[in-house]
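ugh ok fine here u go
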Amino acid sequence: MQRSNTFGKRLPLVLLVSGFCLSPLMAQAATVPQGVVLAQKQEIVRNNGSEPATLDVHKAESNVESNILSDLFVGLVSIDDNGNPRPELAASWDTKDNKTWVFHLRPGLRWSDGSPITAQDVVYSWRRLIDPKTVSPYESYLGTVHVLNADSIIAGKTSPDRLGVKALDAQTVQVELDRPMSYFLQMISHYSLFPVSQADVEKYGDKWTQPGNLVSSGPFKLKSWTVNERVVAERNPNYWDNAHTVLSQVTYLPIASGAADVNRYKAGEIDITLTIPEVQFASLKKELGSQVHTSPYLGVYYYAFNNQKPPFNDVRVRQALSLGIDRGIIADKVLGQGQTAAYTITPDNTGGYTFKLPAVANMTQDQRNAEARKLLAEAGFGPQHPLKFNLLYNTSESHQHIAIAAASMWKKNLGVTAVLQNQEWKTMLDTMHQGNYDVVRYAWIADYNEPSTFLNTFRSDNSENTPKFHDADYDKVLDDALAATSKDQVQKDYQKAEDILNTQAPVVPLYHYVSAKLVKPYIGGFDDHDPQGRVFAKNLYVIKH
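structure:
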């Protein structure tokens, strides 16, 4: 992902739940089958792909960070593989109208330093997220969740303390929305809404995330952070469900090279890889068999145009470059792990919705190329005035292979030159947010299982709309989906949104993801069925081997 990744969203459908209250069930945790003998040393090492840009839940914006944050922190609720909410910090909740929600915290909750977790910490954290001073990439998230006054706060018209969240007492949080939201619980499981300790942040300021300072609420706590080498988390005995946690330590490595990832896995230095290099997939499948894990993954990989920068402010240029890439070759030949060519932003069957493909999906590549050359000529580009631009991607062999293939296609099919540039993840994020790029590699991984997690990133007012795409018709159709009262109408509105994205081409969707990892046979509890590809350390254990 890269993003989760990582990403403000809106959700439709109004389903009133009268007097709903969930009993304090157990959240997901490690379940060791009868007869399984555990190893004495319960420690694992996983590759995380890059150095985390931050461990501040309000400043993180990708799976690089969320992989770690989801082990260190928990929210009011968690979501299982089937999309069902489960209690976490909140033991139960109730609502009569899907508009006012009351959460009852578990008694005796404590931060990793032993201090109490209170309703005020939740209030403080949500206000901090939306406070313009925080400069969170997820600043708009509470607006898309429709928390009362969020939009006004984001616009700078209202103080963060007017946000529709308050502590009724030390263990009770009330959230008021400006409209009913049936998917509210799924949305608040996102890591940007994980509570942080108000006392801790106020004591240490910008240094609160450093080892020794950071206190957490999840099954693990930060032990050490050696920049560009490793992040180590150890078991948090103050976690409310510590009795069902098995691992004692998790180490996260920032290895960008897929080949190095595999080599260290084979050497026994890594237990779970980040992914599997495309060029090695077939041979590793043959060599390691069941250690290769693949599954569908709700994510889209795309190239984003800087829509406000010439010549990419010309829709004809964007459409031409979109047409000039053979997505089938990218998915089947360059990658070849089961990825599918993407002609829509939203992966099919996200939240149970399906989408009609645009006409270009049924054209031959020669037909697409001919149409693309025509569009470029109309925009003033051709043999006498060739188009040349920079294509930025973050350091990774996979991204490099895709970029080389795309540049080759543009050159061969359209006579266009793409100059490849790569930067480390954190640097690329800064470059992208500052708008100092022509075309940039990016991706969106679902924050929740519903199309709006993908579609809302292109809203004009969304803080994650880094392509700077603005289209009033697009914004309106998503508003219409939000107000719709039937799934059929929501389907129609979402289809209109996808059609606008296809016509306006603010980005070029290349493929929809699969999750591919190598996992040691002695790692128990690994989940192959999570549609968001999440790996929670609290579910894992090491089998004696």
